[in-house]
Amino acid sequence: MAVLVTGGTGYIGSHTVVELLNNNYDVVIVDNYVNSKPEVLNRIFKITGKKPRFYEVDCTDYAKLKKVFQKEKITDIIHFAGLKSVAESVAKPQLYIDNNIGSSKVLLRLMDEFNVTNIVFSSSATVYGVPDHVPLKESDKIGGCTNPYGQTKLDIEYLLKDYAKEHKEANIAILRYFNPIGAHESGLIGEDPNGIPNNLMPYITQVAVGKRPHLNVYGDDYKTVDGTGVRDYIHVVDLAHGHLCALKKLEEKPGLVIYNLGTGKGTSVLELVHAFEKANNMKLPYVICPRRPGDVDENYAEVSKAYKEMGFKTKLNIEDACRDSWRWQSKNPNGYDK
Ligand code: WQD
């Protein structure tokens, strides 16, 4: 009766595995370490006292992944595995199509072959494209993605919708994440991007720990509270809880359901910077720079559906995330590398 977590040693995957193990789920991880390190497994053990079964497998490899389905009694899948850099997807669109869509197709083929009915998919707010209003509801227009990464998430949502039409017994939860930030309170696991961070919070913590001279604030002429970009920053531990709510929801055999996972509140870049400074009692150097191509002014979630239909709402706030991100980074200045 195992939950198969693809990409389970990644940032969101590892936080979700911790919550699953702490709630006595039987967890199997498959990961190819393209965006993570084996050390994550040791940290999961340190936090939970448990060692999930692990297979180093690339999810696009049908033959290898099939062996896991033959060996394990999989009842549910949480599919995190995928490349997630917006900038890299613009430079290498075919890699993102082959990897993100390819792995999802392999998984659906094996689900069908092994009669696995339940899957939770890690989607993204980028499927809404350039929003013409906020907050965004699940019923709002999707498409017009501004980058190949977001387009792959949208294409996989359509793959799942087609699969659901053909497999009436399938129960599928599509979770559209807004902006995950923060880290587990232990400081043992956290966000450890390869190379120069694309995302705001890991860049902030690398400035704070002295790895970067200052933060580049991409634009202060947006139509927002202070001119800087506004996003919906959800604590990664809240996000992990959202996956447990989704697994429970699938037990009700709902068919295909779609939920935004966010706080329902927008926070600007400078508001986040000042919250980080206050929470950690430090000054964070930053420079105002030109806008980053593809960025939108504002993007935050309407969150009532996740609460009404699966009882999910966030409990942690921006200050918690700033404190937890800093605890992770200050205890692990080089991430999972020693
Ligand atoms: C947030 C804000 C930037 C970095 C992307 C993906 C989304 C999800 C989260 C994967 C914006 C500003 C950023 C920096 C800055 N990814 N910023 N200086 O672009 O909202 O969303 O990451 O699941 O799918 O689209 O997140 O953190 O890159 O940017 O000023 O060094 O911070 O302009 O306003 P984004 P982000």
How would you describe this structure to a colleague?
With 338 residues, the protein is an alpha/beta fold. It has helices at residues 11-22, 39-48, 62-71, 86-91, 93-113, 148-166, 200-208, 236-250, 269-280, 304-310, 318-331, and strands spanning 2-6, 26-31, 53-56, 74-79, 118-124, 171-177, 179-181, 215-218, 230-231, 233-235, 256-261, 267-268, 286-289, 298-299. A 7-stranded parallel sheet has the order 3-2-1-4-5-6-11, with helices on both faces. The protein has a 3-stranded mixed sheet with strand order 12-9-14. Helix 6 links the parallel strand 5 (118-124) and strand 6 (171-177). The longest helix is centred in the N-terminal third of the chain and has 21 residues, at 93-113. The chain is globular and about 55 Å long. It starts with a strand and ends in a 7-residue tail after the last helix. The mean pLDDT is 97. The structure holds UDP-4-deoxy-4-formamido-beta-L-arabinopyranose. UDP-4-deoxy-4-formamido-beta-L-arabinopyranose binds next to helix 7 and strand 8.
Distance between the termini: 35 Å
> Helical content, roughly?
25-40%
Query: What compounds are bound to the protein?
Result: UDP-4-deoxy-4-formamido-beta-L-arabinopyranose
**Low-confidence parts, pLDDT < 50 over ≥5 residues?**
none
Return Rg in Å. 19 Å
- Mean pLDDT across the residues is 97
Strand numbers in spatial order across the main sheet: 3-2-1-4-5-6-11
Strand content: 15-25%
SSE string, helices as H and strands as E: EHEHEHEHHEHEEHEEEHEEHEEHH
**Mass-distribution shape:** globular
Number of helices: 11
User: What class do helices, strands and sheet pairing give?
Assistant: alpha/beta
- Major pleated sheet: 7 strands, parallel
Can you count the beta strands?
Answer: 14
